[in-house]
Structure formats: C-alpha cells, structure tokens
C-alpha cells in the first residue's frame, strides 16, 4: 500500500493574504514503511496529512495511494485510517458512551458487528478504558478521549494509518502502549504509517525514516540515525570548571565569541574553589574543530579548566531544535540581505 | 489486562467495503441513542405537543364545523391531521441541516464528512428524527380517541394510501433539508431558512384552516402552492372524506414525487459543490 506524492502544492487565502502551506512537494512511501513527519508549527505537516485523508484538496500536483488517485475519495477512504489528535476528542459524539461511539464508527468502516465488538473489548482492556465503556464521552478527560480516538482508528485495521499527534495528552504508560501496538501493526500487518508528532522519543523509537518539513518544503528525508549523525558534526560536549560563573554571560560569550549556541548546561559538582559544569554547544559560525579550539581558549582565558571536550551525537529532539534555530537564522539573514539589496 | 500479542489475531479479518444500508442504519441508531440521552428535552417536546393538541381541541369546542369534500366534520377532526403531520414534517425538514450544523459546531463534522455521502446522512438522521417525533402522533391519537372521544374512521384501505402520501411528504421535506444543508455547509452557520420554511408550512398548507380560504390572497396562495405539505394534506383529506379519492391521491402523490426528485437532485448537486468548496478552502474541520 504505497503512497506517491508529486508536486503537491496547497495555498490558503486568509484575509486577502496567501499562505503557502505546501510548496511543490514530492514524496514516495513504500508499503509497510513507518515514516515520521517532523517540522515546526505551520510547516505543512497537518495539511499534507489532511490532503492524503481527502479532507483537503490540493491546488496542484497529484497523490496516489495504492495507485488510486486521491481525487477518488470514496475508494481512498476505505484504505486509510486518519487520526487528528489536535481535535482533542471533539470528533466523538459527546452524548454517546465510549462503546456506542466505537460501535458506530466501526459500522461506518465496514467492520462486522461481531468482530467489532471483540476488537473494541480487547482494545478497551489494553488501554485500560474497559470500566469506562458506558461513560458518556463528555465526561472523559482529554487524554481518555484521545485514547478513544486512537482505538477508533485501529479497529478497522486500515492499510494506511495517518496519525497526526495521536498521543496528545497521553501519560507515559499509555504512550508506551500506543508505541507498542503501532510497532506490532507495522511489523505484523505491514501497515504503512505516517506519524506526525512532537514527541521525539516516539518518532525516534518507532520510525525508520523521518521527513522534515519546513515552510511547506521537504528539507530532509532520511533515517533518524542519519539525521542525528548529520547534526552530531556540529555538537560539542564539554566538561569544565569555573570559579565565577553566570549562565547568561556564558551563553552570550558562546554566541558572540565562538559563534555557537548553548543548548544545555548542567552543574555537575559544587566545590569550595570551583564549580564543574557539563555543557552542550552547537557550532554554527565556524567548523567544529575551530569552534572547539575557540571554546577551549575562551574558558582558559577566563580562569577556567577544561576536563573533557568532544563531539557527541545529539538526540533527535536536540538535532531538530538545532536545525530549526539555524534555519530560522538563515531565513532572517536572507530577509536582511534582501532588505539591504532593495535599499541600495 | 491483555497484551498486544493477544490482540493481533483478531485484526486479521478484513473490513468489508462501505455499505449504504449499514451506514444509514448506524447513523439512525446513533442519533436515536443520542436523542434518548437528552431525556428531559424529549419528554418536554412530547409534553408541549400534547399541550398544543389540547389548545386546538378546546378551540374546536367553539362549535366550528368545517366541510371537506361535502362532509361536515368538527374543527378538531380537521386540524388533527395537519397538526400530527406538522410535527413530523418539522423534523424531516430540520434533521439533515440542523444535524450538520450541530456536527460542525461540536467537531464531529470531519468524521461525518469522511464516512458519509449526503443521501446516507440525510436518510439516516431524518429517519431517526421522524421515528422519535412519531411518538407525538401516536400519543396524541391515543389521547384524542380514548380520552377526548374524538371519532376517527380509518380502514386498512385508507392506511395504505395515507402511508404512501406520508412517505412522499417526508421525502419531499428531506430533499428540502438537503438543499438547505448545502447553504449551511457553504457558510458554516444557520441562516434561518429552515425555520422560515417551517413557519410558512405551518401557516399556508391547510394545517389549521382549509387553504381554499387563501384564494383571494395571491401571495398567500402562491406560498401554499409551493409547499409540499399542501399536496400531501389534500391527498390525505381526500382519502379520509371523499369517495373519489384515488384520483386525488395519484395527482398529489405525483406532484410530491416530482418535487422530491427535482429538489433532491438539485440539493445533492449543491451539497457536493459546497463540500468541494470547503475541501478546497481546507475548512472541513474548523470550529
């Protein structure tokens, strides 16, 4: 159940302004792939998911699911299971119980009643909702409503799952269960899954491929490990000591003197004569070797000592955040350049 | 507590293709269950309908008699038919459009849009609504015949003709509701057309007085002639009180059928255009 997207463009008109949500993107997803969609807010991730779910029509370009054009929405909707977690459970009937909602949607999805009942009972038990089965949805918490949405999406066992923030509001235990079941569906049923999430741990552990979208364009399309390795070329881990230390001043020095960005700093030890810190820094302006040299000099000149200084592989979240900051800065620099050229 | 391994074997069987009758049945059941969760509103509506009947009964006690097809009947006997139908017609008229508006406001619209086409949705929500509001007719008929001892005469022959006319009246108002839905979907708000049409229906279709009285008033006469219930009531009164009722039933049923067909097709086309518009705007799920 493959997905082929070609030159997809979508523009929204908001109060006379045009906002490009998707800008000529192309993407190929093979059957059984588990793909993570990452990007800042407003990047176009939800628009892409809604286009594939046939809830939004593109302005240009085509998309095919299992060689069926998404314009044939009736056939496409029989193949896919969309979940939009942003709704916070609002796409459930408030005055029906959990069980009645799930039976209703199972009927619509063509699941025979006997099988639907069995699947509902098992999933309610799995997600620890069985004792709330007869409770009206309006009495549930946000997390519980999202669990019901999650269960609703799984019941028909669709060939393709389009999950947009599916675990919003989940506690740690439920997130684990959700991850487990998605993994099993992907491996056992070869379900193609597109997962949009700001839960980086989830994306990192589940997906075999991440697609980074920013301002409507695909910026990176690679395995999570590759993305982290690319980012690790710029990440430095340092253990150092300093007698007098101020975080704001240190951060400003990192930015102005060595052209980097302080990602994280932790106090490791407090002693009479000096404090020992562990910091993570992203090299931006200079190559990493030069940045390491500058960093070392900067700390020593200010009476500090460097115990350990090495590149390190960031987490997916750190890599993503660092990428975002650098792309924003490039965007701002581009704008400044354009302003300078136009003022000449 | 089950684990994932225990769950998976039950997901092997594939789902069937989406089925018109299964989906329509599912929405009928869901809407009835939802309505029954508003128990106080349901019983309040039933109570108010009964109060309405009593109002017209006591009005009729003013010794007003009406002649229909040469037969003299009491005012209440005349009004009872129209009053019973009025409530159910209101439901048929409002069901599709009001339910869609409700879905848009509460957030279930994108799911509805995903699973249903407009005909499945219109039939499902209307049948659910008509079923529930039919309780009003049955309770009112029971009260009228048992407690108020108002004589009605029905035979099986009449029942079949009345049933056909009733079905066609419902279908015609469902088709109008589909038409109005297209406007609600386009603008995502209630612009009051349903209420206006319902009030015109109550006033000018022969519910509380024979429409022959409107003949000297062109505007009122025009409104009466464009309302499907006018033809439905003409057919029903002919069935109940006229010997030569078959011709009247055929003529009025044909008009109702034609109305349903034309407005229905037009309504479905407009709904699909509205749906295309909201998909293009990306506004299927905004609140």
UniProtKB/TrEMBL annotation, chain A:
Top-level taxon of origin: Archaea
SUPFAM superfamilies in the cross-refs: P-loop containing nucleoside triphosphate hydrolases
InterPro entries noted in UniProt: AAA+_ATPase, ABC_transporter-like_ATP-bd, ABC_transporter_ATP-binding, P-loop_NTPase
Signal peptide stretch: none
Record's keyword annotation contains Transport: yes
SMART domains: AAA
Keywords: ATP-binding, Nucleotide-binding, Transport
Molecular function via GO: ATP binding; ATP hydrolysis activity
Domain AAA+ ATPase: 31-217
Protein known as: ABC transporter ATP-binding protein
From TrEMBL, chain B:
Transmembrane residue ranges: 41-60, 72-94, 100-119, 126-148, 160-183, 203-223, 249-273
Assigned keywords, A-Z: Membrane, Transmembrane, Transmembrane helix
Superkingdom classification of source: Archaea
Cited InterPro entries: Nod_factor_ABC_transporter
Name of the protein this chain belongs to: ABC-2 type transporter domain-containing protein
Gene source species: Candidatus Heimdallarchaeum endolithica
